[in-house]
Specification:
Strand content: 25-35%
Number of strands: 9
CATH architecture of one domain: Sandwich
Structural class: alpha+beta
Helix content: 10-25%
Distance between the termini: 149 Å
Largest sheet: 6 strands, mixed
CATH superfamily of one domain: Immunoglobulins
Number of helices: 2
CATH topology of one domain: Immunoglobulin-like
Radius of gyration: 60 Å
Order of helices and strands: HHEEEEEEEEE
Length: 219
Amino acid sequence: MAETMKPTNNSLFLTLLLFSLILSACAGAQDGLPALQTEAAQIVFQWFTETAAAAPPTATSTEALPTPTLTPEIPTTTPPSEDTPPTPTNASGGGASTAPCLRASYEMELIPDGSQFFVNTYFTKGWRLKNTGTCNWTPAFNAVWVHGDLMGADSVVPFTTYNVPPGGYANIYILMQAPSPAGHYTSYWMLRSADGIVFGVGRDAKEWFWVDIVTKPGE
């Protein structure tokens, strides 16, 4: 079924306007024409007034609509699995010590390599060594000859009368005699602990420290 059309405001206006024109035509040239036209005009004017009053106001606001606020998405953090062990940290900034108990480093010496002496001349060779191990050097430690020319020295020489702790220093002095005949001579030495362990200088504590001289004929 077709839906009944409702008259719009424009169609009512046209109807009233047509009605006023018909009245004007019917009156012809009669004396009542001005009155009828005036009455028709008043009817149309009244209709405009009532329609305007009843019509809803037109929105003229130019106020901007508020911008919708987007709630940021909060990322979620997955906690580490309890089966995963924590990464170890070292508060001291270093790892476990790998230094051996007995180790030394060469610091300086008396009588540098290549020094010259007349044959049969006595001299004192000296070394300054640092305890870079983790154990004390006690008065029972010695410097021991291991290779080369002994140059008239004792093969075992005590070098300290007190404990030398890790990081401490010891001075070793050995009285020697320039060999004859004239020539080039070298003597190699290491350290020996109270329980007979021989050790030396360098990273692996297996290097010698030595005497290196040149002898020349006496005057």
